[in-house]
Amino acid sequence: MPDAHGHSNILDRIGIPRSLAAGYLALAFFMIGDGVEQGYLSAFLNDQGFAAHRVALMFTLYGVTAGVSAWMAAALSDVFGPRRLMAVGVVVWVVFHVLFITLGVTEHSGVMLLVCYGLRGFGYPLFAYGFLMWIVRTARPEKLGVAVGWFWFAYIAGFSTLSPLIAKESIALIGPLPTLWSALLVIAVGAVIALNVHAPGGDRPAARPEENPLRGLVKGVSVLWQEPKVAAAGLIRVVNGVSQFGFPVFLPVYFTKSLGFPLGDWLTIYSVMYMVNLGCNLLAGYWSDKYGVTTVLRWMGCVGCAVTTVAFYYIPTATHSFWLSLITGSAFCACLAGFSPMSALMPQIAPRRTGAAMAGLNLGAGLGTAAGPALVGLCLTPLGVAGVMWVFGACYLVGALLTAFLRLPAQQGSPVPATEPSTP
User: Which domains does the chain have, with CATH numbers?
Assistant: First the structure.
């Protein structure tokens, strides 16, 4: 069996647990299905007669439910086991996606649009973060950082990089509504692969019967007022998400309707932006080792995103140039990678409460998925697109100020083997 042995050696060398290798592929497929709509859904719903403020509210509700689900996923995995949690995530996603299309979109029901899309938000974190907990249980300790890094690679590659390109081709072939339906097929492929993964720890709850794993969720909130540095980090994590999750609410409409870009060009821009982000996450980790996590977070992440967010409005608006828009958007996503080493700060700012601090950081990430769409809903009508971009830029400057609370003794950088992506 030399071929199988050689394949195993390759997986070992790059840090992917052999027993979970297919799971990474499953994750990529699932996230493609989950993300295939993100680059065009707001423009499509606008064409169907849904008002911009209702679409923004829909994305906000989705962000709230996804954030709550992500926050609870680790504790639920301990109670039920990762495989069951992933299966529940698939069922939730499929059921509410079908209801979203049939009762919300095709029936033009604003209420069902909000309810079904919002409830669908519980689905993907259960699948994705359930698999992450499986990795944590299975990978060897000395390889855990790399194994988690590959998790984020598959996550971002599927959700933000490949899904817009697939949507572009699918819309050209079958149209936007059938493309929404086609996501079910991709989700099914990911689910079948994942549920046929056989690795230790998949079905076994980690919590002992006498334990209450949900207590960790409470600690993840209480630590925010007990440890001010953790609260500052959580707020910065919210800031991290405002543009990332706010852009899909209104930029597809702005680029295609106001600037006249073909939808395919916008989807290409959106995909390439996150290809750049994927590579720059690695650079951010290297620079944080060299210059310190806080320095990279402040200048590359916060200040860089403040400048490039505003530029991503003015340069495309002034030039109507595909290439300049792509370059500006890519610069934004390169700076967005500056947030990726944040998880390395938690053991340093709360060394005795690292688990609770990470839960608090995850709560901030969850709130970030709702904050961006909420700001769009509040600001788009009175301030316009330019005003929203300035509000987003101001949020990043507030984040830069908050990094002053994260000052560490001697400002030492630390290795960041398992950095969170800039895209949760």
Answer: 19-204 (1.20.1250.20), 214-424 (1.20.1250.20)
